[in-house]
Amino acid sequence: MGDSGPVMDVDRHARGRALGNGAAAGARPIAALTLALSARLLLGAAAPPRQASVAYVIDGDTFRLASGERIRIAGIDAPETRPGQAKCRREIAAGRAATATARGLLQGRTVRLARLGRNYNRTVARVTLDGRDVAGELVRLGASRWWPRGQRKPDWCHG
Fold first, then answer.
1. From residue 77, how far is each of 41, 71, 106, 150 by CA, in Å?
2. Start and end of every TNase-like domain (predicted)?
């Protein structure tokens, strides 16, 4: 008969696991730690919306919480306010107006956040205020436009 390669003593391996010794025992704490961290991440991602206080509105779609965390409102785009980021003067003017609108709506208020992810050192979240969707309210007020994920950024210079 030919050599079929290395053969593992399955019984010895099973006994080692049952007794808590050998390589299987060394892997057990690592597996438990990995499982615990994975569960923590999954539970954190699925956490219910929480309340937070808006300390400062940065622009028409981004604000800072009293905790210091920066929040980007999901699903919308507001015009830029800085010349290096805006594509035209019209966008800068619209951005200043959008910032003022968002400031009037959010500054100093308590909002509910449903965190969705991170983008450019900001937390992306669905935001509600008094039970109303803030993104929808900013669109309704003309301060922002819907920006579905995967779509091109709205053009603030040409209509």
1. 28, 13, 16, 13
2. 48-145
State how beta strands 132-133 and 145-146 pair: unpaired
Asked whether 92 and 81 are in contact (CB, 8 A), the reply is: yes
For residue 32, CA distances in Å to 54, 83, 88, 139 come to 38, 51, 55, 47
Angle, helix 10-19 to helix 22-45, in steps of 10 degrees: 60
- Domain 50-146: assigned CATH number: 2.40.50.90
The answer to whether 115 and 123 are in contact (CB under 8 A) is yes
Query: pLDDT tens digits for 52-111?
Result: 999 999 999 999 999 999 999 999 999 999 999 999 999 999 999 999 999 999 999 999
